[in-house]
Write a structure and sequence with these properties.
heterodimer; A: 147 residues; alpha/beta; five-stranded parallel beta sheet; 5 strands; 38% helix; B: 511 residues; alpha+beta; six-stranded antiparallel beta sheet; 19 strands; 46% helix
Chain lengths: 147, 511
């Protein structure tokens, strides 16, 4: 179990809405698994962080990425695409967490090899449950490759 | 048969009978047998007498030697007043001077024909009034010499009908143009002149193709001939956009109705032409504005969801974390804020669902309504059991529909029937009956019913009849149902007696 592992699970949340950032943090606060959340507010920052460029030279490489689709500067689709062709990054599970229910977005995301596509529930309780489920599945159930 | 035609046929028949009698009279006359001749003469007179047309026989000098009863009636003379008198007495004064020359010419070149080809003929009555007539001339050879038997038909009624027809055509607000079998323009009205910018004299006698755009001009005579072969009153160019071309070469969209008209001159077609430029423009504008509205509704409601989710989520978080730690007022306020946010979320979702009826609808294909109803009932199984409802249905037909949307219609109407139940356990019946080319579906319940003044209002978006506390809901359901039914080309309405149940009825095209 990761709970016993040496370092906390690193989660990268790519999300420009501070309200959603906070909600996600709130939802993960009581998670069973010790976790640490880094936040990138747009696609460019997310990729810089993942590639440890510039100020992110010492950034931890995340174990799980929660990615919104509608982001400033560089959209979620492009971020996803770049992650999945990058040998250093493509093993990291990416969960799309967005408000979009458009069939087009869902298809396109899976085509770009998203690991899961989740629509943000409108209701708080459901939102908390969804984030907890993501946490539970990816951090407790699934065995991640942790270099 | 129209009276004019009957009259004309009567005249022709009488004429044929008469010509037979004339021929027979000639033959026997030539034989010279006095007794036979007398008998033939009597028959001839009897036939002439009973002819439905006025008959007059004159000699080369223009003296009337024989008339029949109808001639007396037409001209208002007694027989004795005319016999032995000049034919010209019956000719209006303005033609009288010229008439002997025509008469003499006819005796010189006698042949059976109608008189005054192309001219309008009039007779003069004893009282000085005139009557429009049609006159047929038959030369008759006898041993006594050459005679002419003229048959006279009063065409007053026909003239009057013609004048009425012309006046009706002329004053029609539609453009009217009549053509013959060869496509030649015989008649146009003022509106045609106005629409196409031609003077009447520029159109009469021209081919109708003058008014047809060049790109279809070549094809048009074929279509026209086809119509004359199978004439029926119908609109022209079903499903195609029709255009007329004006004198200045500009085109206008038109709607054309075709009416075959039987006349004694053959089959004519009277076409009514309406300029639909304005209608087309309005239709286009309406379509654009509807599409814009749909897009607006979709984008607005979609984008409204985001900030609202924040409001809702954080008020909920506030409630979750601080419930009981603040005073009662604070709890109430949080409660109201939360209720408002949740209601607005529902409204937005409903609005999205409403706009999706047209933006996300599937094609209308033959769909087994019975199977669709089965799905809807399966979805409602739990609710139906909870309410103790009895649901029955006819075997439903196959219709042209979007299955998903049709299921929504059943779901909604049956849910309503369950929701607005009375004190008795709900009894719901779903039926279908044939109505011309359509199927009429009904969803009947024994619930609380609806008062007639609300029959229209219930279908309006976000209109509710009941207190929210008694019957929750945003008031979108029936608006969506109506929109779906109308998208399918059907109608929906309600029949109800308050207190004793409601029946919703809607139509769908048969598959």
């Amino acid at each position: 179990m990761y709970a016993t592992s040496a370092r906390p699970v690193e989660i990268l949340l790519v999300e420009d809405n501070p309200g959603d950032v906070r909600l996600t943090q709130e939802a993960l606060r009581d998670a069973k698994v010790r976790n640490q959340i880094q936040v990138a507010v747009d696609g460019v920052e997310a990729l810089a962080l993942l590639r440890r460029e510039g100020q992110y030279i010492n950034a931890a490489r995340p174990d799980l990425i929660l990615l919104d689709l509608n982001l400033p500067r560089k959209g979620g689709r492009e971020v996803l695409e770049e992650i999945k062709v990058d040998d250093r990054l493509k093993h990291i599970p990416v969960v799309i967490l967005t408000t979009s229910q458009a069939e087009q977005d869902i298809l396109e995301s899976y085509r770009l090899r998203a690991n899961a596509y989740v629509t943000k529930p409108v209701d708080l309780e459901q939102f908390l449950r969804v984030v907890k489920s993501i946490e539970q599945f990816w951090l407790e159930i699934v065995k991640l490759s942790r270099p | 048969m129209n009276p004019g035609l009957a009259f004309l046929l009567g005249g022709l028949f009488g004429g044929a009978l008469l010509l037979g009698a004339v021929a027979w009279w000639r033959r026997t006359g030539a034989a010279g047998d006095a007794l036979a001749r007398e008998s033939a003469d009597a028959r001839f007179r009897a036939v002439v007498e009973s002819a439905p047309s006025g008959m007059l026989m004159i000699d080369p000098s223009g003296t009337i030697v024989l008339i029949n009863r109808e001639t007396e009636r037409l001209f208002g003379y007694a027989r004795a007043e005319l016999l032995g008198g000049p034919l010209e007495r019956l000719v209006p004064e303005r033609y009288r001077a010229g008439h002997p020359a025509f008469r003499i010419d006819f005796f010189r070149h006698p042949q059976t024909r109608s008189m005054g080809a192309g001219r309008e003929l009039y007779g003069l009555r004893k009282d000085g009034s005139e009557l429009p007539v049609e006159i047929g001339l038959n030369p008759i050879e006898t041993p006594e010499g050459q005679f002419v038997l003229a048959s006279v038909v009063d065409i007053t009624a026909r003239k009057r009908a013609e004048a009425r027809f012309r006046a009706a055509v002329e004053s029609s607000p539609n453009g009217m143009v009549m053509i013959d079998g060869g496509g030649k323009i015989l008649l146009v009205n003022r509106e045609i002149e106005r629409l196409f910018g031609y003077g009447r004299e520029e159109l009469l006698g021209q081919a109708i193709e003058l008014l047809v755009p060049a790109r279809v001009r070549e094809r048009h005579p074929g279509l026209r001939t086809e119509f004359f072969a199978h004439p029926q009153t119908r609109s022209m160019g079903a499903g195609r956009d029709l255009f007329g071309v004006r004198k200045d070469g500009t085109e206008m969209p038109v709607e054309i109705g075709l009416n075959p008209i039987e006349t004694d001159e053959g089959l004519f077609v009277l076409a009514s032409v309406v300029d639909i430029t304005q209608r087309k423009r309005s239709e286009g504008e309406l379509k654009r504005s509807n599409e814009e509205l749909e897009r607006f509704a979709y984008v607005a409601s979609h984008d409204l969801q985001e900030p609202l989710r924040m409001v809702g989520s954080y008020v909920q978080l506030l409630a979750k974390r601080y419930q009981g730690k603040l005073d009662k007022d604070a709890n109430d306020f949080i409660g109201f804020a939360l209720d408002g946010a949740l209601r607005m979320q529902r409204l937005i979702q409903d609005l999205l669902a409403f706009s999706r009826v047209s933006t996300r609808g599937a094609d209308l294909v033959p769909t087994d309504a019975d199977a669709v109803l089965g799905n809807a009932l399966a979805n409602l199984k739990l609710t139906i059991e909870e309410c103790g409802a009895a649901v029955s249905h006819d075997r439903l037909p196959t219709v042209k529909a979007d299955a998903g949307q049709l299921e929504h219609v059943f779901l909604n109407l049956i849910s309503n029937a369950l929701k607005f139940r009375g004190t008795a356990p709900p009894a719901i019946h779903i039926g279908a009956s044939r109505e011309d080319g359509d199927w009429r579906f009904s969803v009947r319940d024994n619930g609380i019913g609806i008062e007639p003044q609300y029959f229209e209002r219930i279908f309006v978006i976000f209109q509710r009849l009941n207190a929210r506390a008694d019957y929750p809901g945003t008031g979108i359901g029936l608006a969506i149902v109506k929109k779906i039914v109308e998208r399918h080309g059907g109608r929906i309405w309600v029949e109800s007696v308050a207190g004793s149940g409601t029946t919703f009825l809607f139509t769908l095209s048969a598959a």
